[in-house]
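Contributing new complexes? Match this layout with carboxymethyl coenzyme *A.
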Amino acid sequence: MGKPLDAPLGTNTLSVRDNRTGKTYSIPIVDNSISATDFKALSAPRAPSEREENETEKGLRVADKGFLNTAVLRSEITFIDGDAGVLRYRGYPIEQLALHSNHLETAYLLIYGSLPTKSQFQLWHDEIMHHSVIHADAEQFFRSFRYDAHPMAILTSALSYLGSYYSEANPSLQGQNLFTKGDKTSLATMDKQIIRLIGKATTLAAMAYRVRQGREFVTPPTGLSYAGSFLYQMDHLGQENYVPNPVLEKALDVLFLLHADHEMNASSTSVLQVGSSLVDPYSAVAAGCASLYGPLHGGANEAVIRMLISIGKPENVPAFLEAVKKREKVLSGFGHRVYKTSDPRSFIVRKTADEVFKITGKDELLETAMALHDAAMKDNYFISRKLAPNVDFWSGLIYRAMGFPNDFFPVLFAVPRVVGWLAHWRQMMLQTGGVKIWRPRQIYVGAGKRDYVPLEDRVAVEEPKKTPSVVEHSGISKRTTLASFKGQTRAKL
Ligand code: CMC
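Output block (do not edit by hand):
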């Protein structure tokens, strides 16, 4: 720090002159990145007019609302080149994996770093399938949801609920270094939770499905693939020798593989943020699931279908796009923080859709989807903003053709993404230097220090965003509003 500005050209450093003080700093560049903490050394005396909350004397802060250009860790798991439309898991192009691998093999690759041998895969597969059964009491948990509960709400809760069974996997009970020691016992404890979570993800998801259908739950079968077992658990109604359709099983497996990881997306970041407090992995994964639920992330596949239904037919596409351009609507399934061209997964999803449509028949919304896709790809609004289809644009159409209800689509995203969440969680637990709690800073722009005002001296603040809204009391009937009763505190609603 504080080195001269004329550092030799060609060195991996950044020279920064702080014009407030005239001091020059030399900041190392490592792997084409600079450390935000290096900027903390750039402090200056606070000008008399400046707010004390800026903490100018304590060093410069780095602001990045929405993490537009902040690398939160070093990772060996997934690489995306958003301009070229490249996605690689541990170096392997997604196209090759989709063609030759399967979801559980890819899961091994993502979590442990290399493709398993035949015997390694067999053991991994068997362990995961063996750990798919959950405690019988869980049935009551699933039955406790209201009939119309969103399956993502059920799954998120179920993942957290699952953790309550494993006190031996809880750092709050067993010691905070339970997963960070890196010794044989610690690794075995960690891997057991990983196997359990992947094994039981399909079971929990299938239970969330069946509870909505009013069906009995199904014990995970033996002898089926991961995707096959999932289909069986959702669909088996007691028929003898029930075997899911192999084309649908394969398609679901490919979709699982494509959704298994996507580097620092919102849900993986949530898992790491929550996991950084060293909470148990079930709680961390539940947080990831909650994040995935949102319509800007995993909920987009459900939003795409709702959007297509609202458009109705190809003739209505131009009017819809005009509304998008006026910012009255959003084109769900388009755009991505990292991809500035088509998401490579969207091509594979499109191809998989054709395989599925061959046996299910085409979805009636396909024509509208294609018309929307083609029109958006030719429209300057989308071209100039580099907005192209993402994985969610086509995936919902396959899920629909397979007969899944719309609100189940994000669940079909969450189940495979458990793998990516765990790969990132494991990597963080074992990273050199241990786990650092994720505790970002803020730029405080609120009120400066002020003294408490006695009740009688206060002036009412009336601005809508600065006072509580008047809320409707749900479930109150007209009859109740017209009734009188002791303790009634409000005028008629
Ligand atoms: N429809 C219309 N305009 C859009 C869209 C869209 N889908 N996406 C981005 N834009 C516009 C945005 O309004 C902005 O315009 P301007 O520069 O004039 O203000 C510009 O394009 C840049 O977009 P941004 O909002 O700054 O981009 P972001 O990186 O913050 O957001 C995104 C990325 C995925 C949240 C966003 O593109 C979006 O909301 N897409 C629709 C939801 C969706 O499909 N999500 C799934 C993402 S992929 C899978 C996953 O992660 O789950």
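Reviewers usually confirm one structural detail per submission. For this one: The mean pLDDT is 94.
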